[in-house]
């Protein structure tokens, strides 16, 4: 980049830009949790999100539903589902009339894995709550508003 930066660019503080800070905080928290999951179970965050979504739903769920609700790209959901299927934690079921539509379902091994992962996830949630202390309730309210308000 040249020295032709305008005043707006030189005055812009990326470290104070809220969308940037939210993205960095989300990445860091995901990485911290991922380290714990990888170390103990060899599970990635996309795999965790697929497993958690299936466990929460309590039934088979379409790949499309997971994409929407877990805010994941189709390719990440598909790769995570393939790894989980290969490890015996989920089964994929093709729609008989449209083979592009795939539903995922936890196996008994997948349910057992979720039961092993959940205490780690909940302990990490408590760690975040402790870090934020008195600000946690306001943080949760703010996140809820950001996640509920329509995106432009």
UniProtKB/TrEMBL annotation:
SUPFAM superfamilies: Winged helix' DNA-binding domain (SSF46785). Pfam families: MarR_2 (PF12802). Residues 19-152 form the HTH marR-type domain. GO terms for molecular function: DNA binding; DNA-binding transcription factor activity. Keywords: DNA-binding. GO terms for biological process: response to stress. Transmembrane segments: none annotated. It comes from the Bacteria. This is DNA-binding transcriptional regulator, MarR family. It comes from Salipiger marinus. The lineage of its organism: Bacteria, Pseudomonadati, Pseudomonadota, Alphaproteobacteria, Rhodobacterales.
